[in-house]
Design brief:
Strand content: 15-25%
Largest sheet: 5 strands, mixed
Distance between the termini: 40 Å
Oligomer: single chain
Number of helices: 7
Helix content: 25-40%
Radius of gyration: 20 Å
Length: about 220
C-alpha cells in the first residue's frame, strides 16, 4: 500500500460524494472491524460491483484516511474474511483541504456467492440494495450455486415452473410464500423451481417491501 500516491481529486470527489451512498457506492470513515467491511465487499461483489470511499463520513463530509492501518484492515477483510478472496483496486485522491480519500473498487463476481465471515465463524452472503447491505436469503445463495454448476438444461417446464411463469406474466413480482400459497406446493418444491429457472436466466431476484421476490428476467423495473 505504500506505493499508492495521492492524485488530485477535488472535483471527482465532489461529484462522487454528491451522489450519496447508493447501490454502487458506500462511505467509510471508521475502519475498525474487518468482518464488517467484508460484508460490504460481499454485497457489492454479489451484485454488480461498487466502490468504498474511505475517509468520508456518512453525511458526506471528507475527514480523510486516518492512517495506513485502515487500508490494511480492508485488505484483510478482502483476503481473510471473504470466500473466495477478493482482489480490490485502490486509488488515493487528495481533496482541496489536503485530506486523502482512498477509493476501493470491488468488481462484480462472475460466479457468486462471495461469502463474508461473521464474528461467530459462520459464513453468510450479502447483496447490495440501494444503500444497504442485505443478507442474501438461502434460496438466492442456492440459485447462484445451481447456476454455477451448469446442470440446468430443460426441454420442458414442470407444472410448478409453468405455474410460476404464468403468475409472473400477470404480476410484476412474486414472493416465494405467495408462490407456495397460490400453487399449493411445499417450500422445497418452490425453491427447486426458482433455483432452476434462475439458473436458466428466465427469472431474477427483486427486493420489494423489505423482502426478496422473483420477477421475469425480461422485465425491467
Amino acid at each position: 500500500m505504500k506505493d499508492i500516491h495521492a492524485i488530485r481529486g477535488k472535483y471527482y470527489l465532489q461529484q462522487a460524494i454528491a451522489e450519496g451512498e447508493h447501490e454502487h457506492q458506500d462511505f467509510k470513515f471508521a475502519i475498525s472491524d474487518a468482518r464488517k467491511i467484508a460484508r460490504s465487499i460481499s454485497a457489492f461483489a454479489n451484485n454488480s460491483g461498487g466502490r468504498l470511499l474511505i475517509g468520508v463520513k456518512d453525511n458526506g463530509v471528507i475527514a480523510g484516511v486516518r492512517n495506513e492501518e485502515d487500508i490494511y484492515v480492508i485488505e484483510q477483510a478482502a483476503h481473510l474474511y471473504c470466500r473466495p478472496a477478493q482482489q480490490l483496486r485502490f486509488t488515493a485522491y487528495r481533496a482541496a483541504e489536503g485530506a486523502v480519500v482512498i477509493q476501493a473498487d470491488i468488481d462484480r463476481c462472475d460466479a457468486p456467492p462471495v461469502m463474508a465471515q461473521e464474528h461467530d465463524g459462520s459464513w453468510h452472503a450479502y447483496y447490495r440494495v440501494a444503500d444497504e447491505n442485505i443478507a442474501a436469503p438461502a434460496i438466492m445463495v442456492k440459485s447462484w450455486r445451481h447456476k454455477n454448476t451448469g446442470t440446468f438444461n430443460l426441454i420442458t417446464f414442470n407444472t410448478a415452473e409453468q405455474s410460476l411463469l404464468d403468475l409472473l406474466r400477470d404480476m410484476p413480482h412474486v414472493s416465494i410464500e405467495d408462490f407456495m400459497l397460490q400453487c399449493h406446493i411445499s417450500r422445497r418444491t418452490a425453491e427447486e423451481c426458482i433455483s432452476r429457472l434462475y439458473a436458466m436466466d428466465i427469472i431474477r431476484f427483486k427486493f420489494v417491501d423489505r423482502i426478496f421476490a422473483v420477477a421475469l428476467a425480461s422485465e425491467t423495473d
